[in-house]
Write a structure and sequence with these properties.
five-stranded mixed β-sheet, alpha+beta, two-stranded antiparallel ribbon, single chain
C-alpha cells in the first residue's frame, strides 16, 4: 500500500476543502486501499469528485463498494445510537456523544462518509447505573460482574454488546498510559444538541479538540481519520479559543498526548494549529524526536505500530507523559494476563 498512491490520501486530506494541486497519481488503487484502511472511503469518494480526478472503472467500482460498506456499517451504528438515546432519555439521562456518528454529523459533508463501528456515550458517574439498565433493556449484554468491577476501577467505559452492535458507556473521558481523565469538568461545560429530534450533548469545542487529540494519541494515531477530525473541528470553529485549548490540555495528565496528535494533524493533514499552541504543549525534546520516528507518514499510512506488538509497547512506554504510572500499568496488565492463563 505504501508509495505515491497511498501518500496521495494525505495530499487529499491536506488540501481539503480545496482540491489537490497535483495531478492524479498513477497508483489510485493504493489510494483507495489507504482510504478504506483509515475509515475514509466515503469521504474520498466525494473528495475525488471534487478534485476532478478521473478513475478507471475497476477502481471506481472498488471505491464505491468500500464507501457503501462503510455507509452500511454507519447506518447500523446510527440505528443503535438512536435506540440508545431513546432508552436513556426514558430514564432521564442525556449523554454526551463522543466521536462516531455525532462527530461526523457535525463535521463531514455527509455523516456516513466517516467510518464508525460503535456508539460512545459519556455520562456522569451517578448516571451509570440507570443508563446501564436502559441499555440492557435493548437486549445488549453487559460485562460480567468481575470484568465490570475491573473496568470501573481501571478503565473508562463499560461495554454493552449484542446483535444490534456495541455501545461503550463512558464514565471517564479517558484511561490510558496508567492515568485517567475524569469526565466531570468536560460534562460541566458540555453543550446541548440534538440528533433527529433526540436530546444529546456535545463537548465544548476546545474540550472536544483536546479529547479527540488525547484519544488519537492513546491509540498511537493509527487511523488518519482521527487526525482529519482534528482539522475539520478547527475549521468548523474559526473562533476557537486556543488559550483555553492549552489550559484544558495542561489541566489533564496527558498534555504530551495532545501535542503528538495536534502536531501530526498539522504536519500530515494541514490542520491549522498555531505554533504557540504546539510550543506550549510540547514534551521534552527526546520525546519529540521519538514521536517523529514513530509517526512518520509512511508508518501511519501502513498502521505499522498496530501490527507489531513489541513496537506498540515500546512506543507507549517511551511516549508516556509519566513513565512510572505507565510502567505500573504495563506490569499490572501483564500480571493479569499471566494470571488468566
Amino acid at each position: 500500500m505504501s508509495g505515491v498512491g497511498a501518500e496521495a490520501l494525505l495530499e487529499v486530506l491536506r488540501a481539503w476543502p480545496e482540491a489537490p494541486g497535483s495531478p492524479m497519481p498513477t497508483r489510485v488503487d493504493a489510494l483507495v486501499h489507504a482510504a478504506a484502511r483509515h475509515g475514509l472511503a466515503g469521504f474520498l469518494q466525494q473528495a475525488l469528485g471534487h478534485a476532478g480526478w478521473p478513475l478507471e472503472e475497476a477502481v471506481r467500482t472498488r471505491l464505491r463498494r468500500e464507501a457503501l460498506a462503510q455507509a452500511a456499517q454507519g447506518m447500523r451504528v446510527k440505528v443503535l445510537l438512536l435506540r440508545s438515546l431513546d432508552a436513556l432519555g426514558a430514564v432521564g439521562v442525556v449523554p454526551v456523544l463522543l466521536k462516531g456518528y455525532g462527530l461526523a454529523l457535525r463535521l463531514y459533508p455527509e455523516p456516513l462518509q466517516r467510518a464508525t463501528t460503535d456508539v460512545d456515550l459519556l455520562v456522569a458517574d451517578a448516571e451509570v447505573a440507570p443508563a446501564s439498565r436502559a441499555l440492557e433493556g435493548l437486549g445488549l449484554k453487559p460485562l460480567g460482574e468481575r470484568e465490570a468491577a475491573h473496568a470501573r476501577e481501571h478503565e473508562h467505559h463499560l461495554t454493552f454488546s449484542g446483535a444490534a452492535g456495541l455501545v461503550e458507556l463512558h464514565f471517564r473521558a479517558l484511561a490510558g498510559y496508567g492515568q485517567t481523565l475524569e469526565g466531570d469538568v468536560l460534562l460541566a461545560h458540555a453543550e446541548d444538541g440534538e440528533v433527529e429530534g433526540r436530546r444529546v450533548r456535545y463537548l465544548r469545542a476546545e474540550d472536544e479538540l483536546v479529547y479527540l487529540a488525547l484519544h488519537a494519541s492513546n491509540h498511537l494515531l493509527q487511523r488518519l481519520a482521527w487526525l482529519f477530525d482534528l482539522k475539520l473541528l478547527v475549521l468548523a470553529h474559526p473562533g476557537l479559543d486556543w488559550t483555553r485549548v492549552v489550559e484544558v490540555a495542561r489541566g489533564t495528565a496527558f498534555s504530551h498526548l495532545a501535542w503528538y496528535a495536534l502536531e501530526a494533524a498539522r504536519r500530515l493533514v494541514g490542520a491549522p494549529v498555531p505554533d504557540e499552541v504546539l510550543a506550549a504543549l510540547a514534551p521534552p525534546r527526546w520525546q519529540r524526536l521519538l514521536s517523529a520516528r514513530f509517526f512518520t507518514a509512511e508508518r501511519l499510512l501502513e498502521t505499522e505500530l498496530m501490527h507489531h506488538k513489541s513496537a506498540w509497547v515500546a512506543a507507549k512506554l517511551l511516549l508516556a507523559p509519566r513513565l512510572l504510572p505507565m510502567a505500573r500499568y504495563t506490569a499490572r496488565r501483564l500480571w493479569a494476563l499471566t494470571g488468566a492463563q
